[in-house]
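Hi P.,

Sorry for the delay on this. The queue was packed all week, but I finally got your sequence through. Input first:
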Amino acid sequence: MDNKGYDYVKKEWKQSVGEARFVNSENEARLKVSFFKPFWAGYNVIALEDDYKHALVVGNNLKYLWILSREKKIPENVKNKFLAKAKEIGYNTSQLIWVEQK
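Then the structure:
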């Protein structure tokens, strides 16, 4: 698992390489990930668009939530659908940090 992002303040790329393992079978989008062994965390895909361009991912508790996108912009209808699902589960979506992609 390779996560990369550009820090526009420091004007440099940041990268973090981790390891992911399936919790049960490879057909279930329930994983555990580690970027700092021996610590592992939950990584569960709970919603996915048909074209695999957007995914809603949650951790083991209500503190961790990500909306992943293969594009710089998330369509409003997808964003609203994912936020509604997250709220339904109990996430406080008002605390989400929205990163501007350039």
